[in-house]
Amino acid sequence: MARLRIGSRGSQLALWQANHIAALLRGRGHDVSIEVIKTTGDKITDVALAKVGTKGMFTKEIEEALSEHRVDLAVHSLKDLPTELSPGFLLASVPEREDARDAFLSVRYSHLEKLPKNARLGTSSLRRQAQLHSLRANLEIIPLRGNVDTRLRKLHSGEFDAIILAAAGVTRLGLTQMVRHHFEPTEICPAAGQGALAIETRADDAATIETVTFLDHPHTRAAVACERANSLRERGFRTSATVVSCFLRMAMAKKKPVDPQAHRVAELVTSGPLAGKLIVVTRAHRQADDLCSLLKQFGAEVIEAPVIEIREPDSYDALDTALKGILQYDWLILTSVNGVEAMFSRLEPLGLSIDSLQHLKIAAIGPATEQRIQDHGLVVDVVPPQYVAEEIVRSLRKLVKSEKVLLVRAKVARDVIPDELRAAGAHVDVVEAYQSAIPENAKSRMQSVFTDRPLPDAITFTSSSTVQNFFTVVVGTDIPTKLSQVKFASIGPVTSGTMREYGLRVDVEADEYTMEGLTQALVRHFGN
């Protein structure tokens, strides 16, 4: 019999799931242990998931343990598992599914419709928030993070009038006494794969794959495979089209009447102004969720072909030195979410806290960067009206004369900000917080985009680096001969300038230099 090590998150629900699988394996005579692994999603508990993105948030560190042979298999909630697994990993088994619906929990109220106007309703899911707003626009819908116990404690304390949780997790933990109503999928459509577990292994570990085969439930695997492969657009939310057919099958199996509304929902699969359009996203894989989700909401078929990835700097010495001497600075400029996260990640190792930054005046490029700074508890003083370096210079030129400025940015960046602010009389220190690189598989992935399917309708570029890296990737291939048949979309004028430098047409340019602005520009272009 095999000796197996299961990798799992440390929450009560995750451990229930890991122990459930361990018990089934032990029932077959295997020696099983569980290793608790803290993931990025477990560490970031004070920020709404919609603001940080969810791709790999609850799986990355567990996959690292698999890759390093510290564990033999991982047990996940299937809905937390990225649709496309990283190379070298396999979805080896999908056990039989628990209840896939969402549950309404409340101390005082029996149903969503019973909540009074402006009642506080908690949920962690952007998918649920969108649908709940559609059903009850007069509620205060608030992001809710934490494990199930934490969320229930907040409900009992009166912090929320009601909360929405996945029914499966509540059932597995034996906490169904608080459930007042289960939403049918025609009320709130669940996430793809909700209620199912995923057993992930190394793709080359034939022995472990064979060992866990008995756990696989073919009907559940078929249903979730369909759900993860399709997108449903209704009322501006994204979820699975065939989650509906899954419930149709469940209803038929239980000989229950099928709600005709389920058929109506299924008919909306192909709606949207971008329906039938194949759009390539070149943004870094870990940051692509926002743009991909927006495009899919409008009906596009999206292909991720990242030509850039974000890495730690070669050394944190310069950033650490600046943070240790942070009291000497008057201004802090942050130009990206990556810079924000890199800087705040260094505070604890240096024995510093947020309080050490409270004296600073802070400038940020763009609403996403501003929001991330605010999520960490700081006030942003300046956000330029347009989200480019030139605009932040215009906003700060008269404010920074004789002041000491710390600019936290990528290793490679334009020198517009430091050069212009120094010319305006500021003392500017520039420190590297992260660097970008081309992913190892970028060339093969881009070649598959142009050979394995019809040519894409559009390729999106969200920075000058994505343009530069794209051309590095396609050199030596036949892709340049096909580009005349493809539209090119830019997030803003700086990126557009780089595209023109490389001889690339700018067919679409966002008016607002955000993922939402880029999506809106594509909708206008293809919708006309």
Which key terms come to mind for this protein?
22 strands, five-stranded mixed β-sheet, single chain, alpha/beta, 528 residues
What does this structure look like?
With 528 residues, the protein is an alpha/beta fold. The chain is 35% helix and 20% strand. The chain contains 21 helices and 22 strands. A 5-stranded mixed beta sheet has the order 2-1-3-10-4, with helices on both faces. The protein has a 5-stranded mixed beta sheet with strand order 7-6-8-5-9, with helices on both faces. A 5-stranded parallel beta sheet has the order 14-13-20-21-22, with helices on both faces. Helix 19 links the parallel strand 20 and strand 21 (487-490). Helix 19 runs parallel beside helix 20. The chain is globular, with a radius of gyration of 25 Å. Residues 43-55 and 231-271 have low confidence and may be disordered.
